[in-house]
Design goal:
The protein is built from 13 helices and seven strands. Strand 6 and strand 7 form a beta hairpin. The protein has about 475 residues and is of the alpha+beta class. It is about 60% helix and about 10% strand.
Length: about 475
């Protein structure tokens, strides 16, 4: 049921991803959509009761026409509230929050009016519907500050007091929750009505105090958590800047060491003994590995920085089918040495288009395809295919080779994580390729996952939204 409601909320959602980066904005957006869905469900329930009232609830005094009218009012208002929501999501976070809160205020007041009518028709304060105000009061505590939620609570109490006062003054007819023709309908004494109202008021205020106190504490914790997250992000940015400077400074010395090793190996400094040549060849291999790691670290730092300023990233329309085929070309020679072939039969060009940064997508696929070739068994096939998804495109790369354990499915995307099997299969790996892939996917608001199925095939699934924002 929750998954169905989440799907409906996602279809109503019109807020861009940039608007939902803040915790407060994301929560208000989600709650507003759920409120709209809940109202539509209540309207449907009222329609059902109106249609089958004579069969299921013949003793209820509320007329079927009144129930139909309430359902139509709720549905019509729902449409207006959603249109107002659509117009507010195109603005900045502050404006959105202000308009969303006004939207919710108007929704609560409207619901109170409709509920007041239903409470009156179903017997006033003796009706169980009188307690339905509590639901909105609790939601008000979640949406608004204590003084606003208190105002809503006092408004609900005032509505019940006004209904009872009007009934006592004879301004409205007497109503009871259950009315049977053969039963007498004695008037409720004033003293009993006062007990009812006092009990309801105490219950409403006690519920408001408990819920608002809990939500205020949660808001305080939420604020503290946001501050800690900001501190951690600043520490991470400092670490990234330091790593970027350090790797740039280390790159030149290692390149010089590699150049000197090449000069010596080429014989420009005289003939080398077999032992000296062996040592220099090892030095050259280590330098190549370290230079590759430094390049990956610089690339990871640059992508992490790009993630913080996505608006400055150049984007365009990308054909995943075409980019997927191109990503294979640099690895054909190494794949041929292992007898590995490629299968593009399900990777059609022109059908899987997304908006993104071409250079980053090429880096991403180069890392994924490179891993697939490195960790595949000899004589196997690396398969690439794309699939349509709801509002997104999926690109998959599959190979037969190194098995990814379920407990490593998430860890493989962490920086420098390498399982024992991965180290044995490819000792020269840096442990940064999949971390870079995860960062690029994050920049593009997508998802990446890896798993090995029961047939022993390891599949990397990359899900890209069709639009960059």
């Amino acid at each position: 049921m929750d998954a169905f409601a989440d799907t409906l909320a996602a279809r109503l959602d019109r807020a861009p991803a940039a608007l939902k980066e803040g915790l407060r904005e994301r929560e208000v957006n989600r709650r507003l959509l759920w409120f709209l869905l809940l109202r539509a469900a209540v309207a449907s329930a009222l329609t059902g009761v109106a249609l089958f009232k004579g069969l299921l609830f013949p003793e209820l005094q509320v007329p079927a026409g009144g129930l139909f009218a309430c359902a139509l009012i709720l549905l019509g208002a729902d449409g207006l509230f959603w249109l107002h929501y659509r117009s507010s999501v195109g603005e900045g976070p502050q404006s959105f929050l202000l308009k969303a809160e006004r939207n919710l205020q108007a929704q609560i007041v409207l619901d109170f009016l409709v509920l007041a009518y239903l409470v009156f028709e179903c017997g006033g304060i003796e009706s169980p519907l009188a307690y339905f105000f509590l639901f909105h009061n609790a939601l008000s505590c979640l949406f608004f500050r204590r003084r606003v939620s208190l105002a809503h609570t006092l408004l609900s109490i005032s509505i019940l007091v006004a209904l009872e006062a009007l009934r006592r003054a004879g301004a409205v007819p007497e109503r009871h929750f259950i009315a049977v023709a053969s039963w007498p309908t004695p008037a409720v004494p004033s003293r009993v009505s006062a007990y009812y109202l006092s009990g309801l008021s105490f219950f409403y205020l006690a519920a408001w105090y408990l819920v608002s106190t809990i939500t205020e504490r949660l808001r305080l914790r939420e604020h503290q958590l946001e501050e800690k997250i900001d501190e951690l992000l600043e520490v991470d940015r400092t670490k990234t800047r330091y790593m970027l400077v350090t790797t740039h400074e280390l790159k030149a010395p290692f390149a010089a060491i590699q150049s000197y090793a090449e000069v010596l190996l080429d014989g420009y400094a005289g003939e080398l003994s077999p032992k000296a040549r062996e040592i220099l060849e090892r030095v050259q291999v280590r330098c190549q590995k370290l230079l590759g790691m430094l390049k990956d670290m610089i690339r990871l730092s640059n992508i992490t920085t790009t993630k913080e300023r996505r608006g400055a990233l150049a984007t365009g329309l990308i054909d995943l089918g075409l980019v997927g085929r191109e990503a294979v070309e640099p690895f054909r020679e190494s794949a041929a040495r292992k007898g590995i072939s490629f299968d593009f039969s399900r990777l059609e060009g022109g059908r899987h288009l997304i908006e993104g940064n071409l250079e980053q997508i090429q880096i991403l696929l180069s890392n994924i395809v490179g891993n697939a070739v490195s960790y595949s068994h000899s004589g196997t096939t690396v398969r690439l295919w794309a699939e349509h998804s709801s509002g997104a495109e999926e690109l998959c790369v599959a190979n037969r080779g190194l098995v990814v354990r379920p407990e490593h499915a998430e860890k493989v995307f962490l920086e420098y994580f390498r399982s024992e099997e991965a180290v044995k299969a490819n000792p020269n790996g840096t442990g940064l390729g999949l971390a870079i892939a995860r960062q690029i996917i994050g920049v593009h608001r997508g998802r990446i996952g890896m798993e090995t199925d029961e047939k022993g095939e390891t599949v990397v699934r990359m899900r890209f939204p069709r639009t960059f924002l």
